[in-house]
Write a structure and sequence with these properties.
The complex is a heterodimer. Chain A is 38% helix and 26% strand. Chain A is of the alpha/beta class. Chain A has two domains: 160 residues, Rossmann fold (3-Layer(aba) Sandwich), CATH 3.40.50; 66 residues, no CATH class. Chain B is mostly helical. Chain B is built from 24 helices and no strands. Classes of the chains: A alpha/beta, B mainly alpha. At the A-B interface, α2 and α3 of A face α1, α2, α5 and α12 of B.
Chain lengths: 237, 532
């Protein structure tokens, strides 16, 4: 579903933020992307979702090139950024309707999905309030709902659990499992290694813009905890 | 098309005061919305009044046929300048870029909708001028009834071309800047340079369109406006369309506007993502060495923070520092060309003794310096980061003293430089020059403190885009408008009183008055600060 081939991203003076990354996320995978702050996780994720321009390498979503077939890729992808910058002066429901309009979702379908997810995240009562009055966690919940209502084939999340309460974290994990079972590919970055260990079937560790270890969770950890594996790989890398 | 409508509708709704009023449960916020409506209503009335008065002037002078040209010139100039100032904040570097670009919108749709949003938000201002002038024109020229629908329709079209030109220039500057590591500085310098060029060209163009051989003032105005119509074609098309009305001119103005829109956003769309990627992404240098740290007092630390905030944003820098840079440039130009030459250029060689302008020198420089006080917008610019200052163990008054200190650091050197240049060029005696310098510093203090009063009183932290509080905020408008009108009045008053009384005595009186106003504003600012 997602194929990153030799992707590199340079900033001024030839400095590489990401250097020759290749990975594949299949349908039904929950792929964790872990690394230090500034390792290149968000730079990779932003290129995958078509926000960041890049010149080296190729990124394919369901066989479509992110660079050349931008719209085909975006129509089947949902992105939840680490710090959701939503329109603060819209109400939660106005924002969700905007996203539903963009993806051309019918009224009955959108009402059912918004209600289902808003109830799961316990935010239904607040949907009529301005987003500016929401806490960080509530904004994150609205961003998550907006990503789920159009049933993406690829779900990309950047630090999705930051700011979520324990109940919402559990709900999101359940939804991720459910989507994965339905064939959605999930690619997400996180610092929470425990969560990654329990949730992901595949993982990649990135350091200074290069992947230093990747594979299935079983292959990578070889009986150790993900934390131990990460620290060891980090030390060697 | 459908995607564009959905996005445009949402962009407008997301900044709609009505939407905030309707859905906010915060009474204070709802009251602020009503206050904004009232404030905006007053500004619209002032603009309409000014436009009608201009038409009456033309009508009474028998020059009413020049009114459509003047209307088109005023709207085109305002649309160009205001768009150019706003382009960086609206088209590029905006907060929700990641969210929008991850949705299935093409780059040119996002850029085009951002432009249309800018157009829709500023359209009421241009309509106020145009429709008021249409009424004035109707009263004096008694045109055929078909002129009115043509005028109304073209009022919507007229700002499009200058706005597109300004946006395209902003795009070119962003394009060039994005190729550099320090793109923010390059973008600021290029934007500033272009604004200064515009201000300088104004006089050059005016010299061209006002033929010196024309002796009669009224005839000169009439010919100048007609020449402007020939030089900038959309002005000529507008005038032709509403005077006739000439269908070909209506079609030309509309067709060219549409065509230009399509061309500009096809070009912008092609490199929109790469420009924004370059402007928004910064790799960590990882070269930092921990040395050379400095300890500062609380107020100096806040002043330094304000300096970094100003220089860190192209939008803030081009709006916040343009006044001081223009003041310095004006001083240098005066020194090079001579005081008399500058006065001749500005007053169109009006025959009078230039020495009578000497007492007004501090106010002339203040006209530039007072264009903007950083204290008027910096409280709002704290935005969501306001908690940082609020949670620190410092007095609220210290925060605003720091902000005021920074504005004084920013304005006083330029004020002194400008006054010195003008004073030396105008051969002002040393004793009078010293009084002018003191008056200049006191004016800076007033501007700083009055700006701070407006800034705290109308603080708005929930902005989406910093341009909303830098360029369009209630605090800045309330600071700026009375200040500018008062300065223009004071220049005239100083010239008038300077002919009747001693320059030093007059400056002394003004120093006392302005110092008293500055002191009152300062105390008011501190009192408001304690209540924030």
């Amino acid at each position: 579903m997602l194929e990153i081939r030799h992707y590199s991203k340079s900033y001024g003076e030839g400095k590489k933020a990401v250097d020759d990354i290749s990975l594949t996320v299949e349908s039904g995978d929950i792929y964790g992307f872990i690394g230090h702050n500034g390792a290149g996780k968000s730079t990779t994720i932003r290129a995958v979702v078509g926000v960041l321009d890049f010149t080296e390498g190729e990124i394919l979503i369901d066989g479509h090139s992110v660079r050349d077939e931008e719209m085909e890729c975006k129509r089947i992808t949902a992105y939840i950024p680490d710090n959701p910058d939503l329109y603060e002066n819209l109400t939660g429901i106005q924002y969700l309707n905007f996203i539903a309009d963009v993806f051309d979702i019918g009224v009955t379908e959108r009402e059912a999905d918004i209600k289902r997810y808003a109830d799961l995240f316990e935010i239904t009562d607040s949907l009529g309030d301005l987003i500016s009055s929401y806490s960080h966690g509530m904004k994150q919940k609205v961003a998550i709902i907006s990503a789920l209502i159009h049933h993406p084939k690829l779900l990309v999340l950047d630090e999705p659990f930051v700011g979520l309460d324990p109940k919402a974290t559990f709900t999101l994990k359940e939804i991720m499992h459910e989507m994965c079972a339905q064939g959605t590919a999930i690619f997400f970055s996180t610092h929470v290694l425990d969560v990654a260990e329990k949730l992901c079937n595949k993982v990649a560790i990135i350091k200074h813009g290069r992947i230093i270890a990747s594979g299935t969770m079983k292959e990578l950890t070889e009986g150790h905890s993900l934390e131990e594996t990460f620290l060891e790989a980090d030390h060697e890398g | 098309m459908k995607a564009s409508i959905i996005l445009l509708k949402t962009l407008l709704l997301s900044t709609s005061q009505h939407n905030i009023y309707k859905h906010s449960t915060d009474k204070k916020r709802r009251r602020r919305v009503i206050g904004n409506y009232i404030g905006m209503g007053c500004l619209y009335l002032m603009l309409i009044g000014y436009s009608i008065a201009m038409c009456i002037g033309y009508g009474e002078s028998g020059l009413i046929e020049a009114a459509p040209v003047m209307c088109a010139i005023v709207i085109s100039a305002l649309a160009f300048l205001f768009t150019f100032f706003k382009t960086n904040g609206y088209l590029f570097n905006f907060k929700e870029y990641d969210m929008l670009m991850s949705l299935p919108f093409e780059s040119r749709t996002v850029a085009g909708c951002k432009f249309m949003y800018m157009y829709m938000k500023s359209l009421p201002w241009y309509l106020s001028i145009s429709l008021a002038m249409m009424i004035g024109y109707g009263i004096y020229a008694h045109p055929s009834p078909v002129v009115y629908p043509a005028w109304i329709f073209l009022s919507f079209v007229l700002p499009v071309i200058p706005m597109l030109l300004a946006s395209f220039l902003g795009f070119l500057i962003a394009r060039v800047s994005s190729g550099f590591r320090k793109n923010n500085i390059i973008q600021t310098v290029l934007t500033m340079a272009f604004i200064i060029l515009c201000f300088s060209l104004r006089y050059i163009i005016e010299d061209v369109i006002r033929d010196d051989k024309v002796e009669n003032t009224l005839q000169s105005i009439s010919e100048a406006t007609e020449n402007a119509g020939r030089m900038y074609l959309p002005v000529g098309w507008f005038a032709g369309a509403v005077r006739g009305p000439v269908v070909s001119d209506i079609l030309l103005l509309t067709g060219v506007s549409l065509l230009l829109f399509v061309i500009v956003f096809r070009i912008v769309g092609n490199s929109y993502r790469s420009i924004n990627s370059a402007l928004k992404s910064h790799a960590a240098a990882k070269k930092y060495r921990m040395n050379g740290q400095k300890k500062r007092s609380v107020i100096s630390a806040i002043a330094y923070k304000e300096f970094k905030r100003l220089t860190g944003s192209t939008t803030y820098m081009t709006n916040g520092a343009i006044g001081v840079i223009l003041a310095a440039l004006f001083g240098i130009v005066t020194l090079i060309l001579g005081f008399d030459k500058i006065v001749d250029t500005v007053t169109q060689n009006a025959p009078f003794d230039h020495a009578i302008l000497q007492p007004a020198i501090p106010f002339i420089i203040y006209f530039f310096i007072g264009m903007m006080a950083t204290t008027a917008c910096s409280p709002s610019l704290e935005g969501k980061n306001y908690w940082i200052l609020q949670s620190l163990p410092i007095e609220k008054t210290s925060i605003y003293k720091g902000k005021m200190l920074f504005n004084m650091y920013l304005t006083v050197p330029f004020m002194i430089f400008g006054i010195l240049c003008m004073g030396i060029s105008a051969k002002v005696p040393v004793s009078e020059l010293i009084m002018d310098l003191i008056l200049g510093v006191v004016l800076c203090a007033f501007s700083t403190a009055w700006g701070c009063v407006c800034g705290i009183r109308h603080m708005r932290l929930d902005w989406e885009n910093e341009i909303e509080v830098i360029k369009q905020g209630a605090a800045v408008s309330i600071y700026l408008l009375p200040n500018m009108f008062a300065v223009m009045g004071l220049v005239v008053l100083m010239v008038f009183l300077g002919m009747k009384m001693n320059h030093i005595l007059l400056s002394g009186i003004m120093i006392l008055i302005v110092a008293a106003l500055a002191a009152v504003s300062y105390l008011r600012a501190l009192s408001l600060a304690r209540r924030t």
